[in-house]
Amino acid sequence: MPHLTTSDTWQQLKQHTRTLPHMRTLFEQNPQRFEQMSLSSCGLLLDYSKNRVNDETLALLFKLAKETNLEQKIASMFQGDIINNTEQRAVLHTALRAKPNEEVWVNGVNIVSEVQQTLTKMAKFVAQVQSGDWLGYSDKPITDIVSIGIGGSFLGPKIVSQALRPYWHKGINCHFVANVDASSICEKLKGLNAETTLFVMSSKSFGTQETLTNTLSAKQWFLAQGGSQQDVAKHFVAVTSNVAKATEFGMDANNIFPMWDWVGGRYSLWSAIGLPIALLIGMDNFKLLLEGAQAMDEHFAHSPLEQNIPTVMALLSVLYGNFYGAQSHVILTYDHYLRGLPAYFQQLDMESNGKSVTMAGTEVDFNTGPVIWGGEGTNGQHAYHQLLHQGTGLIPADFILPLQSHNPLGEHHQQLASNCFGQTQALMQGRTYSEALAELSTADITDAQKQLIAKHKVMPGNKPSNTLLMDKLTPTTLGSLIALYEHRTFVQGVIWDINSFDQWGVELGKVLGNDVLDKLGAQHDSTTLDASSNALINIFRRQKL
Ligand SMILES: O=P(O)(O)OC[C@H]1O[C@](O)(CO)[C@@H](O)[C@@H]1O
């Protein structure tokens, strides 16, 4: 494949982006802009007309995608090729939501049947817990789930459970523990009753320090509260690909839900890592979540690139990061239940595309994954939207809004929607100096003050945004939405020819951290590291600033 930045298409895009008129002009030139730049599939509608694109821009972006063999790369992922080249693994989170009669072969095994067996095991367990048949050591049903895990073993279950709060089974609550900071688990265990608490320990490797430490502390709490060693099996289950280590840890073999090395942590909520979700919303709703993701898989795998929602969103992000120097991308969820989604997409995208070498190990000479951040609308309008409108950087934005609320109340939802749409309009059109001055024409201030304030009220506009609508936030539409972002992340990795599925960057900190831990516990001060690390360690050892 020709070097990306020296390709003709890349050079043409570079030239073209310098000539594009303001989005105001693009809208004035084409009254059909929304009809031509919106796509619907899987219960979602994408309006991408408020972007710095015209037909030529899009044609060049799709040409760039085709030159990276995107269609073949998509097929390759779905069929289980070893596309995670540094860990020699297939990437098959799509198999977790495949239809039961589908076949996907890995090392001579049809993994769809293994996935279905695990879903059956999950369904049985969820039914027992939700029906009250699963009893604790004092023969009481479970009322509280404590999910222990971190990274992809935490954020997926937490964010999806939060998003689907209207679907929770009555009488069961869930608490998520991730950080090794004892305040996390101590706060979550406060007020819980060991007799009716079930711990779900999720760790693909069963080797993550935070999760092991938290699980040990949970076990000590359980025993201190009156549980006994032989009762552990009634109150602790594990989700892991490392069954040997889990049983060695003391987990009952019957209480271990398997997962596989062809599922990356940040792509794993569809597996038994999603057990806390299923325990809360029930297996029927969990399967609707899977069906929503499966529908998006179908769309992604079979739609022409020009009508392919993940591909369009990915190419727009490539446009801003590689041709306009955008360093971040903001996700604005205009729905309280989706308030955690930006953090989830942050992990998904930044741990996948925060890379600086290509698949072959060659250092890149272009921007790769942006900083993903965001929050809940309308709150952000009173926090960081000022910078989005008048800051010096370009920050493309995704706005997400369900048409219907789970809590219809007076005019609330109309106001939420009007804020969402008003923000995208303001970002696109901005406000000119003459418009600002005209707005001040009747103000009781001097002309000089009017001119000064008008300068401060100018908003450049031409700030790009996507708007994603859904009828209502349901397990199905949420599944489609999350799968959409998974595939958007994948497409960007293909364009940049990077491995989106390993995460070597998180290893060094862990290794050095273990060495620091040893030094903190040593009989003498640390002297062998850099001056800063030695000083910090020794200050902590003395517990005195
Ligand atoms: O599920 P495990 O193996 O405990 O790993 C937890 C998380 O740590 C990482 O390996 C690194 O952050 C993630 O990819 C993963 O989701």
From TrEMBL:
Pathway recorded for this protein: Carbohydrate biosynthesis; gluconeogenesis; Carbohydrate degradation; glycolysis; D-glyceraldehyde 3-phosphate and glycerone phosphate from D-glucose: step 2/4
EC number: 5.3.1.9
Alphabetically ordered keywords of this record: Cytoplasm, Gluconeogenesis, Glycolysis, Isomerase
Family matches, as Pfam families: PGI
Repeat listed as a keyword: no
Gene Ontology molecular function: any one: glucose-6-phosphate isomerase activity
Chief location of this protein within or outside the cell: cytoplasm
InterPro entries: G6P_Isomerase (IPR001672), G6P_Isomerase_C (IPR023096), Phosphoglucose_isomerase_CS (IPR018189), SIS_dom_sf (IPR046348), SIS_PGI_1 (IPR035476), SIS_PGI_2 (IPR035482)
Subcellular localization, as worded in the UniProt entry: Cytoplasm
Enzyme class: isomerase
PANTHER family documented for this protein: GLUCOSE-6-PHOSPHATE ISOMERASE
Function summary: Catalyzes the reversible isomerization of glucose-6-phosphate to fructose-6-phosphate.
Family: Belongs to the GPI family.
Protein name per Swiss-Prot or TrEMBL: Glucose-6-phosphate isomerase
